[in-house]
Amino acid sequence: MGKKNQNGKTLVIVESPSKAKTINKYLGSDYIVSSSVGHIVDLPKSRLAVDIKNNFKPEYITIRGKAKVLNELKKYAAMSSQVLLATDPDREGEAISWHLSNSLSSKNSNIKRIEFNEITKNAIDEAIAHPREIDIDRVNAQQARRILDRIVGYNISPILWKKIKRGLSAGRVQSVALMVICDREEEIDKFMPEEYWSLDVECLHKKKKFIASLYSFKSEKVSLKSGEETEKIIENLRGKTLKIKDIRKKERRRKAAPPYITSKLQQDAANKLGFTSQKTMMIAQQLYEGINISHEGPVGLITYMRTDSTRISDAALQAVRGYIGENYSSDFLPERPLFYKNKKGAQDAHEAIRPTDVNRSPASIKGDLTKDQFRLYDLIWKKFVASQMTPEISEITTVDLEAGDYIFRATGSRIIFEGFAVLYKEKRSNKNTLPSLTVGEDVEAGEFLPEQHFTSPPPRFSDATLVKFLEESGIGRPSTYAPTINTLIKRYYITRSGRQLVPTVLGKLVNSIMVKHFPSLVSIDFTANMENKLDLIEEAKFEWEQMLREFYEPFKDVVDRAEENIEEMKNILDEETDMVCEKCGSKMVKKLGRFGFFLACSAFPECRNAKSLPLGKCPKCDGDVIKKESKKGKGRGKFFSCSNYPECDFVTRDDPAEKDCPKCGKVLFKKRIKGVGEKLTCLNEECGFSVELLDQKNGSGDNEGGNSA
Prior knowledge:
Layout: E1 10-14, H1 17-26, E2 31-35, E3 41-42, E4 50-51, E5 57-58, E6 61-62, H2 67-79, E7 82-85, H3 91-104, E8 111-113, H4 121-129, H5 136-163, H6 174-190, E9 195-205, E10 208-217, E11 220-221, H7 227-237, E12 242-256, H8 262-273, H9 277-289, E13 291-293, E14 297-299, H10 314-327, H11 362-365, H12 371-386, E15 392-403, E16 406-417, E17 442-454, H13 463-472, H14 481-490, E18 494-497, E19 500-503, H15 505-517, H16 524-538, H17 544-565, E20 575-580, E21 587-593, E22 596-601, E23 610-612, E24 625-630, E25 637-642, E26 651-652, E27 655-660, E28 667-673, E29 677-682, E30 690-692, E31 705-708
Parallel strand pairs: 1-2, 1-7, 7-8
Antiparallel strand pairs: 3-6, 4-5, 9-10, 9-17, 10-11, 10-16, 12-15, 12-17, 12-31, 13-14, 15-16, 18-19, 20-21, 21-22, 22-23, 24-25, 25-26, 27-28, 28-29, 29-30
């Protein structure tokens, strides 16, 4: 063991350089702050590296490229009187600290763990004042999860490589997520739309108009199936007077929602800001680790962003109540702080996601943030402040109007007191109001407004709804949602269409194999149960080796049977086309690569000609529209251009549709138009064809509040 150095310096090790920079601002010259840049050691990529027969003992190695970082940390450790490991406050962070402790103990025996939920001076001072030992139970939970995922991946992935194509993978959470996306797509494919109609009437009362909807006939709720049925009702009602039969008024109290947990932040950022889960977590990490604020330097703006607890510290509660009291009237401040229940199984180690200083309003630091940083911080700040404000109070008025045996119903709402919704007032209005009405009054019936509808298929999953599903099913943890979606996209199992997650041919094929041959692995209950066991390991209520033993033997039997029974499908994804190779005259074959389908010469390997798959005819010339990838500059990502470039300069980032223009035969593109929705549009200027698409919103409601009372 290394001797304690007497020079008085303390080495503080964090995970990222930007976090180190922020922390360094709060610590004096007696501290050296350095970063491990993530994990230092891990299981090697080239082999299983888990000794199954020796109690699942893992074989860790220094990650390639990290030797220099580790040597530098060893040098600092040898120079210091003590080492404080300040990695992230979760399982992964605990495991990184454990590996660091093992690697540095020969240079310095005085190693402790510190933990803080926010990067502020008070939080860091408090953490340094109360160092602790490594939490080995938390480490064991991480280690069990890592080994479990390694066993699954390194047993199933080679089978997929052998039977389908190289580069495929399966995973404990990833395969369940893929299954639910594919199941939803199957529901959509099988869906048969049914026609139904609604009937509204324009009512006029003392020169004020309002709309009422047909509700019932002879006390039975009306369900209109056809235009003919609807037209008969209009004929029966034409010329009749509407009489107000009943008026009911009810007060609605809409409570604020809790402050953010990880999954809810990802859902709101997807629905309101259009962020992917990965983008949300990347920006949240920046806000947590520190942003350069004018006259302050690097500042951690939010608390730790991986949490499933709604708990708030007493100091933060006092601060936000003080802020509300100073900036709003007393009506907006509840008598006592508000507390919110955690969902079942939530880990309560960390607070909810909130601003580190509520007085640092979004407007006050807008100039120091990028556009996306500001939008996410604004979302977090408002949600936190709103969570400690009084409810919004509305008056809901329901009016029943009688026309013979028919009842029409009109509903209006009026905000009596804004409450927490004052923070979101730019999104709210009193448009849905009714004129002053009295029971027994006659109301003039104006124009009837029949409208045809068709039932819609269930919407595809988006980042927001998939995260919600995984969370509610108990699958994965806050840290896994974004990487899971990203892995499915990288493997080309799913693609994005706008905000929708769409399974590919490859994704459907892999899913069918997983469902048929590995049913327990894609079982929602089984996967959720594994998460529960990991939680029990962290709570020292279950042995991690026992968990792996219980899993491994039945799993290995399933793997052995699957390897024998799965048919080889390597050529199932290859499809011969009518196109001819311009280099050798052989037929071109449609093949599936890492980034989707492409064309390759059937004479491979003698002829290595390959090119992008034509997606349709170019709107500007006789060439084909092809997909390309830009990896440089601001415009990185996919785009679509003409195969005759540079002779033809057509280029767009709009996604091509799966159908051609009915007027000119060119490929149609999906254009999202603000305030209108998505349209299929022909970009041929001489044609101009355009048709509106049914917009499936994927649950993108804009409700900042919680339950109504």
